[in-house]
Amino acid sequence: MRPAAETRGSTDAKSNAMPLIDKEELAVGDDCYRKIRTDIIFGQLRPAHKLKLEALREAYRVSVSTLREILSRLTAEGFVTAEGKRGFEVAAVSAENLRELAGLRLLLESHAMVTSFANADVEWEGRVVSAHHKLASTERLMESGIGEPEQWKRYDGEFHQALISNCGSRVLMETHSLAFDKYFRYQMVAFSYRGSEPAEQHKALLECALKRDAETAKKVLAAHVNNCIDHALANSSL
């Protein structure tokens, strides 16, 4: 028979133990987080839209407590703004913020491209070629007027991410991914398809990748992003 002190200690340890985490609840929360984040990025939840918990609970079928956690997470990422007692709203957009995001994207992506090109191998080359093929096919559909903007932008993101996928730094990839998603939101909210120019620039980036020509690729990328910004600011209400 164990001593009383040991028994009490065991009981106390059990009473102080952390509650078991409901894995199903975590999975539902993660799924809802991705859905709301995607709806913000693709403009289904518009900039400055008030995020009322009861309405979100009905739309996304999760508890209010889970929604609070999700919105706090999205606030930390910069997609949502916390309004104190007034609740949450989708982060607003502005010309100044767009320029800042474009500058950050260029800084990160240019640096990552140089390293990725230097580490190039056959598998990386295959990823880049495959991503460009999907993007180019979608761009042709966009030019013909029958393409889907969301698919076009998804493949756009995949191509640019493939270009830097051999940079060898998880932190750089994660930081670039978050900056790109924020920039991506502006593409869906404020940009419109501007014809063959971006398609030609993507083709030029592919050629630079196959030649391992990082210096030319950086110049093409700068023109690609800056032209997008000029187009957005000239043709939107930002």
Account of the 3D structure:
- The chain has helices spanning 4-16, 23-41, 53-60, 64-77, 95-118, 122-144, 149-163, 170-189, 197-211, 214-235; strands at residues 50-51, 80-82, 88-90.
- Mean pLDDT is 88; it is low at 4-11 and 17-21.
- It is globular, with a radius of gyration of 23 Å.
- Strand 2 and strand 3 form a beta hairpin.
- The relative contact order is 0.11.
- Helix 5 packs across helix 8 and helix 6 runs antiparallel to helix 7 (149-163).
- With 238 residues, it is mostly helical.
- It is 73% helix and 3% strand.
- Strands 1-3-2 form a 3-stranded antiparallel beta sheet.
- The protein folds into 2 domains: 23-90, Arc Repressor Mutant, subunit A (Orthogonal Bundle); 95-235, Up-down Bundle (Four Helix Bundle (Hemerythrin (Met), subunit A)), CATH 1.20.120.
Question: Characteristics of this structure?
Answer:
mainly alpha; Arc Repressor Mutant, subunit A; 2 domains; 3-stranded antiparallel sheet; 73% helix
Provide a brief overview of the structure.
By secondary structure, the protein is mainly alpha-helical.
Classification by helices and strands = mainly alpha
Query: pLDDT below 50 for ≥5 consecutive residues: which ranges?
Result: 4-11, 17-21
Shape: globular
Instruction: State the CATH topology of the largest domain.
Output: Four Helix Bundle (Hemerythrin (Met), subunit A)
Please report the number of helical segments.
10
Tell me the distance between the termini.
76 Å
- Physical arrangement of strands within the biggest beta sheet: 1-3-2
CATH class of the largest domain: Mainly Alpha
Q: Tell me the series of helices and strands, N- to C-terminal.
A: HHEHHEEHHHHHH
| Beta strand count | 3
